[in-house]
Amino acid sequence: MKKIVSMMLLLAGLGSSAVAQSPIELNIQLDKPTGKISPHMWGVFFEDINLGADGGIYAELVKNRSFEFDQPWMAWKKLENGPEGTYLLLNDSKRKGNKRYLRLNNTTNLKLGLQNEGFRGMGVKSGEAYEFSLQYQRAATGMKIHVEVLNEQNKVIGEAEFPLNAATSWSEAAVKFSVSETTAKAKLNVWFTGSGTLDIDMLSLFPVDTWKGRPKGLRKDMVQMLADMKPGFIRFPGGCIVEGKDLANRFQWKKTVGPITERELIINRWNTEFKHRLTPDYFQTFGLGFFEYFLLAEDIGATPVPILNCGMACQFNTGEVVPLEELDEYVQDALDLIEFANGSIDTKWGKLRAEMGHPEPFHLKMLGVGNENWGPQYIERLAVFKKALNEKHPEISLIASSGTDPEGDRFDFLNEKLRAMNINIIDEHYYRPPSWFLSSASRYDNYDRNGVKIFAGEYASHTTRPNGPGKSTWEAALSEAAFMTGLERNADVVEMASYAPLFGHVDGWQWSPDLIWVDNLKVYGTPSYQVQKLYATNKGTSIIPIKREGEPVAGRDSLYASAVYDDLSQQLVLKVVNYNSKPIKVSLDIVSRKKLLATAQKITLANADLNVSNSLEEPLIISPKEDTVTYKGKKLVETFEPYSFTLIKMSTK
User: Fold this and answer.
1) Mean pLDDT of 95-118
2) Reaction catalysed by this chain (predicted)?
């Protein structure tokens, strides 16, 4: 009897083991797409935070080049002292935007000099060419400028000298030279010789090798990281800098276009936002202004998505609002921006765009009004914008804020009001721990399919915060990948999505995690970047249902999945997340009249250690592993690695 019982227990155990090992069945209805995917589904969100613009993607190496910081001598040091009044800062109220300049009174023919420290140093590369330039006036015959780039040991590693032509009005002079050594922490010396009085301004140093070779342009390697993602859109200029700490500090696009020398600098609102990361030297010079943002979007094939202030300052700071009867200026800014982007060159703002070198329109189709604003005061102001914009530009889709959080009273209030207004797109933000992203993969499954579209405008999985660049972990990225299967499955509701923030400088960040990290020389993508890139470069055109026992694959047994079909490449693309510490076997039953080719491409991001991160020293710890796999028929068995995100791309006939 004992032997019979033992045998029965053994068989039961074997049966249980067999069940545990049998693959999970997933059904894919390739011929029954449930909706179309927006061509700009996956994009990027840019905000000048963490030295993202000045000191980052804007390739200027000189900090405070026009002496306009609150402390005019910040970043500068006098190398030689002359008599009192030798170095004299002037503030000329007649000059547009850029009022301050430096006067050198060299009455005794001294060798006068200035040194600039750059943005946490200056990154220069051996053999590369750099251009120094400045504006000057009142130059006397015989005056010369000698430029030196110094390494961390104060050794000269690049230099040039050039004469100044006599000038009674503002002129520009420039010289190109190369450096002989690579360093991330160089500094610049500028020496002046010749007797007389010299006015100088806009002292500048740029790499010659910028993005697309544009003079005084963008940092090539940082833009390339964006171009490699093939983003469908770029949202700019933020973010909280749109609101400003107060309305005087808000982003005003009209002050960021036209001649660089006339763009009015303001303090960056992240300058003193966080006491643990004070950045008193953080300003916005607007060398990267709205024209450059539009140009960047065009360069990387992305739809431009500008966001404008709605007449409200950041509600976490002053919460200032413009009286409704004084909102016309803000509404006019929106109307004029559409003219700047799309208008004929015969219009005022279209003409300015043409004068800046782009007579063709930028084809603006969407415009955001407000960023993370909430409350009835926001709805009142948004209604004024909506009425004016709908009347004059019904072709422009309006994006409205749902506040700072994805749930709660504020969100519920705005969600109801915005839907009642029939706003085009609602911008939802979520900065949450990995557990929230995992549990929210079904967030949009029950949203109204015929209602307002959703823009997942800012999201990031936070393991801890605030922290440093080493904390952009695989755990965070994998939870985002799982959540994004839900965004993709509901792409008929979710029109756009973007991670935030985009860039972080390892020596000058205020907020983390971030998608891409840089120092003055190098750049790397975090695990989250690798996830975002795989989604963006494999977005497809149609949503394909993939289900387990008739339900979405959204977390049961820590398995997540979505599927798309791409009409252009004629490929079925499966995305699967295994959020388990063990491999998981899955049977994929593809129902279709189409023929599947036997050879498929498999791309995997995986690591058994959820705490692992990429870094400047090891930028590819989490990076795609590509394999060619062969399947037979339309019922495929695949084993997914522990803690993995996998794409399977199958061609059809």
Assistant:
1) 92
2) Hydrolysis of terminal non-reducing alpha-L-arabinofuranoside residues in alpha-L-arabinosides
CA distance 588 to 564: 14
Residue 70 counted as domain residue: no
* Residue found by looking up tokens 């709805």 in the block: 379
| Torsion angle, alpha carbons of 4, 8, 10, 12, to 10 | 180
Domain that holds residue 120: 76-207
14 falls within a domain: no
Of 320, 339, 372, 475, the active-site residue reads 372
pTM over 0.90: yes
**247 φ, ψ to 5°?**
-70, -25
Q: What's the confidence (pLDDT) of residue 414? A: 98
CB of 287 closer than 8 Å to CB of 260? yes
pLDDT for the residue 633: 87
CA–CA distances in Å: residue 377 to residues 9, 380, 411: 69, 5, 14
CA distance 650 to 226: 26
Please indicate, yes or no, whether residues 291 and 428 belong to a single structural domain of this protein.
yes
Residue 188 shares a structural domain with residue 258: no
Query: For the packed helices 527-536 and 474-489, what is the interaxial angle rounded to 10 degrees?
Result: 20
pLDDT in tens, 526-559: 999 999 999 999 999 999 999 999 999 999 999 9
Beta pairing, strands 233-236 & 303-308? parallel
Q: Dig out the tokens for 119 from the structure.
A: 């943005």
184: which residues sit within 8 A by CB, 6+ positions away? 121, 123, 519, 520, 521
**CA dihedral sign of residues 542, 546, 552, 554:** negative
372 is known as an active-site residue: yes
